Amino acid sequence: MEEQNVNTTVETKKMPGFLKVLCILSFVGIGLVFISSIYNIFTFQTNIDNLRSLNGLFGSSDLGSAIDSLIKYGQVIYIINAICVIICLIGVLMMWKLKKTGFYIYLVGEIAPAIFSFALMGGFGALGTMMMITGLIFPIAFIIMYALNLKQMS
Known about the structure:
The model has no long low-confidence stretch (mean pLDDT about 80). This protein is mostly helical. It is elongated, with a radius of gyration of 21 Å. Helix content is about 80%, strand content about 0%. It has one domain (about 15-150).
């Protein structure tokens, strides 16, 4: 009987350098935001007094109503942020494995905190809206950069 050696070549996709850098930056950012969210969850009660004293300074202004809402919903928002960070981590891990589905999971994890915050706090007024838009600059930039790499994923 004749033995045949069959050379099978398994084609593995190589991760583009730009995508690798994005994922590594995301891992670092996710770690920092997760630590911050957990810290805020556990120290929120001790910070309420500081928020209340700040609220006295701003009264019924946009900032004052934002602080009222933060006192009321802050801990829930921090918990939502921590959950969304985990969702982002799952998405980035999938994109690290070149899975396109990871992008859509990451997208949900990045956008959901802003939507929940806006919904819970009933809008932010002009100042709050400007702060929210400023806070979305990095997530939107990363979403765009990941979207540019979708063709590399399957």
